[in-house]
Description:
Elements: H1 4-37, H2 44-63, H3 65-75, H4 81-97, H5 102-124, H6 128-149, H7 155-160, H8 169-192, H9 207-221, E1 230-232, E2 238-241, E3 244-249, H10 256-274, H11 291-305, H12 309-322, H13 331-338, H14 356-371, H15 380-392, H16 418-437, H17 441-446, H18 451-460, H19 470-478, H20 485-498
Parallel strand pairs: 1-3
Antiparallel strand pairs: 2-3
Helix pairs in contact: 1-2, 1-3, 1-4, 2-5, 3-4, 5-6, 8-14, 8-16, 8-20, 9-10, 9-12, 10-11, 11-16, 12-13, 14-15, 16-20
Amino acid sequence: MATDATQTAAHEELLDRYERISNIEGAAGILNWDQEVMMPEGGTPARSAQLSALSATSHELLTEEAMGEALDAAESAELTDEEDAAVREIRRQYERATRVPTELVEEISRTTSEALPVWKEAKAEDDFSKFAPVLEELIDLKRDYAEQIDPDRPAYEVLFEDYEPYLGLDTAERILERLREELVPLIDAVGESDVELASPFAGQFDPDTQEALTRDALDTLGYDWDRGRLDTAPHPFSMGTTFDARVTTRYEDDDMLGALTSTIHEFGHATYTQGLPDEEYGSPLGENRNLSVHESQSRFWENHVGRSESFWSLFLPHVREQFPELDGVTPRDAYEAANRVYDDNPIRIEADELTYHMHIVLRFEIERELIEGDLDVSEVPKVWNDRMEEYLGVRPDTDAEGCLQDIHWSHGSFGYFPTYSLGSVLAAQLYASADEEIDDLDGQIEAGEFGPLHEWLTENVHQHGKRYTTPDLIEEATGEAFTADYFLDYASEKYGALYDL
């Protein structure tokens, strides 16, 4: 019979092995950040080789026989709930990884690294034909990857579980269908409304001054600069660990509001990462739950805080200080500008809270058809434009503002997009719970008192890492199962009031 010391040793050996993998993947993350933010254009051949080597090493460590033995030993021990959760997560990753050959992992890593500059060039030159060959290659590789993991299930369903392993693709389908059914009539009603919301942020805004403003916003919201930094990237993102959670944004001369909301969005991601428990670094309990929960944190801060009237009462003086020409703008003007519905906008990351989900439905449908072999890559531009016109009433003028606008497919990220809508829906459910439990949350936002909100999110979401599955985490945090009710109620109430519906 195993002694307590033997059981503890088995668990510690498993975590030691996992931490080595986690550190290698963290190093790969820094190389990916560097490639998108700082690396000279000519660095791609070496970078793709470096990332491929790290992917192979990580995969070999995860799938080696000793890892399987460590898992077996840990699972036979009497574990606490937290220890059991860590073992569950490692087992899940192990089972998927052992079905995939190292050579395929290396090939996917090399191809995605080389695809990034191809996508950038194709987008800059508005030439989908330049990206099409590498997109075909990535689709073939990801189909192979999914078939290795589970040849008996649809490939897209298997790929989706890389990003959201516990809610299930059927949940994503159900949520997206409900959003389409209930948001389209609301968007139509907004379009027919005679109400014209304020638009005080038209004009040209110096990028350096925009950067000063976004740093003000991060200061105001409580970003931990000792564990983070702000840079620019063609497609804003955040990455890192609890000790180093970085944010990127981008500045357009004529879109100061876009840079600000994008930065607040990435702040939400980063503050989740910074809120993970330090003492669990390198274990599943020190990692984010998944991309649905991650996106809920970015949407929470971007939409429920950053687009609120309370926030604009607090932050507008900072805007006026950086841009004195906006001295006559009122908090109500700024609130209305931040919540205008643009049903003629073809760009996802510039979309409002309502039409955003039609952008996701479009991407979900197209990438699923690509992976399942129901759509040829050559057909993507036309199908994209046709569905954009059908769902949003706008047809992109170019592929650069159509099917080339997102970076995700160059990363080989097929199955990622639905987590954006799942995260938005979850953000509304979490905000409703926080609002119920925190005294005068709107008043605290207006006063710049974000401590209680950070504490609530840390206690109910961040500190758990991967202790709970997604459904269990939602139930622990809100007391209810995952539901779209809160988001749809929030959208109807907010936009009904704004547009006098």
